[in-house]
Amino acid sequence: MSARIALVCGAGGFIGSHLVRRLKAEGLWVRGVDLKFPAFSETAADDFVIGDLCEPDFCRSIVDRRFDEVYQLAADMGGAGYIFTGEHDAEVMHNSASINLNMLEACRRRAASRIFYSSSACIYPLYNQEDPDNPNCTEPSAYPAAPDSEYGWEKLFSERLYLSYQRNHGIKVRIARYHNIFGPEGTWRGGREKAPAAICRKVAEAPDRGEIEMWGDGNQTRSFLYIDECLDGTLRLTRSDFSGPVNVGSEEMVTINELARMAMRIAGKELTVRHIPGPLGVRGRNSDNHLIRERLGWAPSRPLEAGLAATYRWIEQQVRGKELRQAA
To answer: Contact, 296 vs 240, CB < 8 A?
Structure first.
């Protein structure tokens, strides 16, 4: 019997490169596609194609057969320093919408079995996330719509696009709303990194009893999901009979101050925090996992500190490697 085949769009990115590795471990033949190869390790894909998914002809060329599973993770994205400044809104909207329009049409032409789409918790309304202690991120609360960024608006549009293709063209779609995925081999510097990586980098670079900077007062709340559990939820959803959208995230909500103290504890450092102005996003956000428990019988269970410890150790190695290269 021939192996199942999968296509991973965004395979050069953090989640995509980990997903390719997981699919290969399960015995699938995998084609990866991205603008770039993974930054921190060799790809595990059987076939890796470099190209721009904003181009319709390129999308048609890579969907050259009927894939059993298509994972559409590709997007123009980044952390708060990229998404919330307003400086990248047009390219975020244009590039991500183009990718989704092109990929869905290419998959329709090849009658792809099913396609997974990675949406985001950024689709949830700003008005439900103003209280850091009681955010509302249940799936139905997405409407009336009022995301806090153009990135969130594009994700919400694309959710509706995928569901429309399912209704009109019979493509089986699966939609997950990711909540702050983190782990080793994620972007850790350069402006697109997210809070766990940024905090770990600052702590790793700081001298003992030194200081780190943090945007805002640090009382904004978030939950963070370790990459391994993100993949568990993604695969379970993709292979289920449930389309979603559904949250894939942790319910362990912390303030950014608590996240920083956790990283310091892992590092064995006593540091002070200097709060400075900067882009923040919503005041509070936390995954609500009632629906994923009900429909898939699953929810993540790994404590945040365990995932953060693994991430900190990896980022600390990157920081030391950078320092050694600069000293050479």
So the answer is: yes
Is the Cα dihedral 52, 57, 60, 64 positive or negative? negative
Give the predicted TM-score (pTM) of the model.
0.94
In terms of Cα–Cα distance, which of 55, 154, 72, 157 is closest to 107?
72
Q: Which residue, 189, 314, 200, 198, is CA-closest to 267?
A: 200
Look at residues 253, 294, 288, 245 and name the one whose alpha carbon lies nearest to residue 137. Answer: 288
Q: How many C-beta atoms lie closer than 10 Å to residue 167's C-beta?
A: 10
- The set of residues, in sequence order, having a beta carbon less than 8 Å from that of 69 and lying 6+ positions away, is 4, 5, 6, 7, 23, 28, 113, 114, 115, 116, 238, 239
List of domains in the chain: 5-182+225-248 (3.40.50.720), 195-222+252-285+303-327 (3.90.25.10)
Catalytic residues: 151
Residue of 217, 118, 241, 226 whose CA lies nearest to 181 = 226
**How many other C-beta atoms can be found within 10 angstroms of the C-beta atom of residue 218?**
15
Tens-place pLDDT, residues 29-76: 999 999 999 999 999 999 999 999 999 999 999 999 999 999 999 998
User: How far is 202 from 255, CA to CA, in rounded Å?
Assistant: 17
Q: Which of 6, 110, 126, 119 is nearest to 60 (CA)?
A: 110
Q: What percent of the chain has pLDDT over 90?
A: 87
